Model the fold of this input.
Amino acid sequence: MSGILDAFKLDGKVAIVTGSERGLGRGMAVALAQAGADIVGVTYVESAPETKAAVEAAGRKYVHVMANLSTIEPVERIVDTALKTFGHIDILVNNAGIIIRNDSVDFTEKEWDDVMNVNLKAMFFLCQAVARQFIAQGKGGKIVNVASMLSFQGGVRVPSYTASKSGVKGITMLMANEWAKHGICVNAVAPGYMATDNTTQLRADEKRSAEILGRIPAGRWGLPEDLGGAVVFLASKASDYVNGYTLAIDGGWLAR
Done:
């Protein structure tokens, strides 16, 4: 008789992870590999050697796809690469995203479109393409989108990022509503303030960094490995009755 820990295993599963070359994306890709999944890593750069090495060190396969997700052009190619390599897809993690900081009164149309195209438009259409494959396979599947604290709050000087991450939370619920009947679970993780490239400016501002740390009950910036347990849970059989939910991984930020 299998135990509860077996429900978290991803042996034989194939996971697509966007933005897998560094930071949160690498952390989640490696966690999924350690749980047993082979990884299709989608990045804006030509290769992701550190992620590849970490996945292979976990005994899993890593296949790289270079794609610019500022358009939806690569979506079909990403899915095709996964299918040609592994024959099926079981998990999608939509992590790729960008942020642009500027006062709302000065924000340009390009700054708006650049963020929305990557964070929301490409995310949705990759979900759509993978969901179609899940339905064709007839075995359901797991989608984990990456939301943000700004899916719950307004933020400052990041209007397109706030809009996109609020959209991620909303569209995650919509897709769960529509696709649950196919055995597809669509959830999101909302990282708190993490020590990644996106927060370099914030962490370099001593005053702002101190204000942020002062509100986090855990008393520290989050790390990519802090997302590992949550993403494995949401990608595994253990979360089969969890759908349409955005899980905050924030050191207690929202509770303060």
